[in-house]
User: Which sequence fits this backbone?
């Protein structure tokens, strides 16, 4: 099969044998696979992985083969997959059904081979069938949309939680914007891209702040929130330099929710957090069923988030395009 192999420096297309199918797995013919911020972080050297490795974990495709222990009814199904594989189903976390923190877990496209390839072998317990009204391209948003829903699974909302400031209106920020509005929150969206700010406005964000204007982001947020700061401030930027503003934009006893990874040395003002009794939350992954319902019912718009599409052969160009175009929201690799 054709696969995009990351060697620790570059990504190149190679012809390699199809994955070996274990009895508990299915073989998926990948149809579409999204480029995630995590993929970019790996290629930029901010997140270390074993190499050589096939990246990619936001994907959808058709099951073309099932292992001996898998129900044959899966054959031919249109599916997507959760990313946390190698689950032992017996550790401390698994006993509490927190499978995403299983001690033996390995993530597709990060710890073990992922979906920038013609085929991927996946454990059947990770599968979710895609309804016919969700295209393969749209289905690549199920994993990040689940992560957006997870924000409010791990961070319960209180009666004072009325405003949420979302720093970064990329794919995750714009999904989160829509989920926050469903949860009854007033969204303040912050980004440097007019295109992204306009999309947030179309999705119903009440306040938009372009973060390269003269007036400071913190000043604008204070003005909007009666000089208090936002109740909830979410980081989806992946930019360590944004964290100072994120802390300063949060009101005392407010909540900061970190959704993106920032690399190894992240400066953050812990004293301010302690003095003002701010709580920090974080979350990743999330409930696929909620994401599939949100997409299938039309409640969540993902069509407008697709910026560009590349064939697998041109995946290196897809990664390079992020350097050139800050309006780029979501790139999909068609396979
Ligand atoms: Zn476990």
Assistant:
């Amino acid at each position: 099969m054709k696969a995009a192999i990351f060697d620790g420096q570059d990504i190149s297309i190679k012809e390699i044998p199809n994955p070996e199918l274990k009895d508990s797995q299915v073989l998926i013919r990948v149809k579409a696979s999204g480029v995630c911020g995590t993929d970019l972080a790996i290629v930029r050297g901010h997140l270390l992985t074993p190499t050589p490795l096939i990246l990619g974990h936001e994907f959808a495709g058709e099951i073309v083969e099932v292992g001996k222990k898998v129900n044959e009814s899966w054959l031919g199904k249109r599916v997507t997959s959760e990313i946390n594989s190698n689950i032992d189903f017996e550790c401390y976390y698994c006993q509490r059904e927190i499978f995403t923190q299983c001690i033996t877990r390995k993530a597709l496209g990060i710890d073990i081979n992922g979906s920038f390839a013609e085929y991927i072998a996946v454990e059947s317990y990770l599968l979710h069938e895609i309804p016919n009204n969700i295209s393969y391209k749209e289905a690549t948003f199920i994993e990040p949309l689940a992560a957006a829903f997870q924000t409010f699974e791990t961070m319960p909302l209180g009666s004072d939680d009325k405003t949420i400031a979302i720093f970064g209106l990329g794919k995750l920020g714009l999904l989160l914007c829509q989920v926050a509005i469903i949860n009854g929150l007033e969204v303040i969206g912050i980004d440097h891209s007019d295109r992204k700010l306009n999309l947030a406005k179309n999705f119903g964000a009440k306040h938009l702040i372009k973060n390269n204007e003269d007036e400071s982001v913190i000043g604008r947020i204070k003005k909007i929130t009666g000089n208090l700061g936002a109740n909830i401030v979410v980081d989806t930027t992946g930019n360590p330099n944004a964290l100072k503003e994120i802390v300063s934009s949060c009101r005392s006893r407010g909540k900061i929710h970190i959704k993106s990874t920032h690399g190894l040395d992240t400066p953050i003002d812990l004293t301010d957090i302690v003095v003002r009794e701010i709580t920090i939350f974080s979350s990743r992954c999330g409930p696929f069923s909620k994401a599939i319902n949100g997409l299938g019912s039309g409640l969540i718009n993902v069509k407008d988030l697709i910026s560009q599409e590349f064939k697998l052969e041109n995946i290196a160009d897809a990664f390079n395009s992020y350097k050139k175009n800050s309006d780029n929201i979501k790139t999909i690799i068609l396979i």
Notes: The chain has eleven helices and 18 strands. The two ends are 11 Å apart (CA to CA).
